[in-house]
Protein: DUF1508 domain-containing protein
Organism: Flavobacterium tiangeerense
Amino acid sequence: MGAFVISKRYNEEYKFVFTSRKGKVVFTSLSYELKFECEETIEQFKLKSDTADFLKFKSTSGKFYFKLMLEGSHFATSRKYTTSLRLQKGIDEIVRYASVSETLDFTSNDLIFLED
């Protein structure tokens, strides 16, 4: 099962990514000024993931990606995929697991691993 991971960008704004069950990033959200906006967007997406639209694109370098739309608004962009089949597998992962995925918060600056 995948997970939503909340973190901070370098400009101190918040974002979240959806990771696959293998730990690869599937998509990255837009930026949010406040952390609770990330949390609300994740919960809204979990509830309405079955109504999401995936707009598929091909970059000038030949890579495939999608923009994730919810209620007509763009809120996330996928990573780049080498084939359209892998792109579809990323979409399938979202459709299958997003509504039941856990949310992880990595926004604090506390050290997870203490130095010896």
Summary: The chain has two helices and seven strands. The longest strand covers residues 64-70. The two ends are 34 Å apart (CA to CA).
